[in-house]
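User: Please predict the structure of the protein below. I'd like the answer in structure-token form so I can feed it into my own downstream comparison script.

Assistant: Understood. Taking the following sequence of 299 residues as input:
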Amino acid sequence: MIEDNSLGLEFKYLIVNDMDRKFGLWVNTVGYQSIPPDSPYPLKEHPSGYFFNAEKGRVLREYQLVYITKGRGLFSSDSTSEKQVCKGRLMVLFPGQWHTYRPLRQTGWREYYIGFEGPMIDAIVDDAFLSQEQQILEIGLNEELVSLFSRALAVAEADKISAQQYLSGIVLHMIGMILSVSKNKVFEMSDVDQKIEQAKIIMNENVSGNVDPEELAMRLNISYSWFRRVFKEYTGYAPAKYFQELKLRKAKQMLVGTSQSVKEISFFLGFQSTEYFFSFFKKRTGLTPLEYRSFGREE
């Protein structure tokens, strides 16, 4: 079964010190939330500086990238009249600018966001790489961009030394990708490209559960035999094998980046037992989970 994660919510607000500011770019917040249809928005779990009334809007002190991967809604700002935002579109928010956005009640939406500031990004905006005249960018469903948001969340959660510099690099990677994709109109993918990207995103978002490839194909309104063949042509992996690779990658990240036990990681990733996870990991990497953790932290 595919777990919808309809109530998914994950976010992190970071502490920034003087040394972080000297780097020229720092991240204040990163998060993900899935808003089901007929749900209140925004959710009230956020601090007062970020929570807002969608009818009244708000003004931030930072830049934000807000990427929608499911559902649709509305966006408007001082410089942008009300426009529809649907999956595959990204909103760019600017400091000091009034704006508001919200999902449609009948659809809800899934959003990834990251907030940042600093002279480095100011220079990028001053040179018009990002503009208030073009705040909604067509990206299409892009699994690599979703992975960058997920990586930023993991780095923020681990909060290791120089995490801010790592996060700044991720932000620059995101901006470079967004500019390249939108300006080269790579978003004008074929239906096939979009189906495969959508499948990869669903797998990424359900890495802690189970995804049945046949059910996934049905969800995407395509035949399983066609889906399996084309997915392997695009990724080099059959869908089930690709999902295993995602679980393995997440396990590696958690072993090195968190203090969670092997049992906890095994449970989080949906393995049927710790013993099965141990066997799976050793077979794929040549190391036990604890050996990998020790090796990764030594580096």
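That's the full token string. The two ends are 38 Å apart (CA to CA).
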